[in-house]
Design brief:
alpha/beta
């Protein structure tokens, strides 16, 4: 399963419910975009190291941005940005899940609801 950024933030804030969702998943993935979002929120090198250690400790693998993911994300933006407001970041995360045949777990259903082929698991905090 691929986890959206919000799930990891919930865990870092102490949410036991978010931690249980991750614990139940044997294979844990994030998109490279999620990794970058987490690092971008850090204020210093110590926080960068904490994020990296946090992801390693929980056994997350970061999936790269490939040409096929980029293409699918562009299609999502073309199809859904005007009608549903999908943003580039969310399109890349959704495309990463779809291209890797994985479910996406997120608390942000509105960001992903338009994408019919996406296997989506809603997290409610």
């Amino acid at each position: 399963m691929i986890f959206d950024t919000d799930i990891l933030i919930w865990i870092q804030r102490g949410s036991e419910k978010a931690a249980r969702v991750v614990d139940r998943s044997i294979d844990r993935y994030i998109s490279i975009v999620t990794y970058m979002e987490l690092l971008q929120a850090a204020n210093n090198k110590k926080q960068h190291d904490y994020i990296s250690d946090f992801l390693k400790e929980l056994g997350f693998q970061t999936l790269p941005l490939t040409e096929s993911i980029g293409h699918r994300a562009a299609v999502y933006v073309e199809e859904y940005s005007l009608s549903h407001g999908i943003r580039a970041i969310d399109a890349i995360i959704a495309a990463t899940a779809t291209e890797n045949h994985l479910h996406l777990c997120s608390g942000n259903a509105k960001h992903f609801k338009a994408i019919q082929e996406l296997k989506f698991k809603l997290f409610r905090p």
